[in-house]
Amino acid sequence: MRQERVKGNFELGIDAQSFEEAEVVRRQLDAYNARDIDGFMACWANDAEVYAWPSDRIAKGAEEIRTRHIERFNEPDLFAHLVSRTAVDGLVVDREVVTRNFPQGRGTLDVIGIYELEAGKIKRAWFKQGVPVFGD
């Protein structure tokens, strides 16, 4: 069991597989924030699927995921701030506060991302979004 130091003076035990899966999700979030489409796509399986929670499929396959994110990466204020991450046996769950550019203006929203990994890649992901908040 790998021991990881987290905020504070306590340690979190996490198995090596879950740690590696969390690292894949970390790399894809870092690439998302850097608007690095190639780095981002390197974390996704070729036949991956993306869903709006709970079951509305919004992208199927690497090409659809790439196209969707190239458009998203054009938003000047795009940034996902990680609040928390949990990983257990093939699933990684992130809570993020995402800044986006909406037709109504710049806003933030809470997002829960659930990533299912297989063979070191994101195979499926579900996103539950809160209501955008506008203004500074």
Structural overview:
The protein is of the alpha+beta class. It is 26% helix and 51% strand. It has helices spanning 16-34, 37-41, 62-72; strands at 2-5, 11-14, 44-52, 56-60, 79-88, 91-102, 105-118, 121-129, 133-134. The strands form two sheets. Strands 3, 4, 5, 6, 7, 8 and 9 form a seven-stranded mixed beta sheet that branches. Strands 1-2 form a two-stranded antiparallel ribbon. The protein is globular, with a radius of gyration of 15 Å. The termini are far apart. Residues 1-11 have low confidence and may be disordered.
From the structure above, extract its key features.
136 residues, alpha+beta, 7-stranded mixed sheet, two-stranded antiparallel sheet, 3 helices, 9 strands, 26% helix, disordered N terminus
Percent strand: over 45%
User: Can you tell me the residue ranges where pLDDT is under 50 for at least 5 consecutive residues?
Assistant: 1-11
Count of individual beta strands: 9
Shape: globular
Helix content: 25-40%
Number of helical segments with 4 or more residues: 3
Order of helices and strands: EEHHEEHEEEEE
Structural class: alpha+beta
Mean pLDDT: 91
Oligomer: single chain
Distance between the termini: 43 Å
- The Cα radius of gyration reads 15 Å
Q: Largest sheet, described in full? A: 7 strands, mixed
